[in-house]
Amino acid sequence: MFTGLVEEVGVVRRLERTGGGARLVVGAETVLEGLRMGDSISVSGTCLTVVATRRGEFAVECMPETLSRTTIGSMYQGGEVNLERSLAWGDRMGGHLVMGHVDAVVAASNVSRRGIALEVTFSLPESVRAFVAAKGSVAVDGVSLTVIEVDDKTFTVGLIPHTVANTTLRSVKRGTQVNLEADIIARYVYQAVRGSHRDDDASGEPTAGLTEELLRDKGFV
Question: Could you tell me the CATH number of the domain that includes residue 22?
């Protein structure tokens, strides 16, 4: 489990393809402190297991599912990645609860400046839409961000100067693909409300629908 507060921007040393997946080697400094084989680490929002460490770098292994469902499969030598070690009991909880389980790869459709902030609009797949709400939290490439606004097809977040300076989102532009993870609490709320409002269809099989009126009735909006 993570917080979405990036500790360091690492550099991809190499992505070694194998018949059953790949081995990713990342150059780093800060996150190597106390990092051991078997530990979990967030690499641009993807929870991976450390299989080796040595001076200046660590390695993780990626199965086919990871390579096909995240941006890990398209990483290249010299590319930058956001890094965060797993949360330890007693640590301060700064961002929000991030699992490192990527829901979708989405693309930036617009980048604009508004005051001190850089506002970025991303595509929003239908499969994730129910879990993303204005003023709610999302993890974009492992960075905990607050949603400014959302519609049926997109959501917008704002990046303060610190985020721009200290994460890979400093290089985001139209078309940039990123890993998206919805807020885990929103997911559980959705499932809880959905499960309490099931109706039987003509076949006798349960069906479910979730509307804004339903959520309002339950006091969530």
Answer: 2.40.30.20
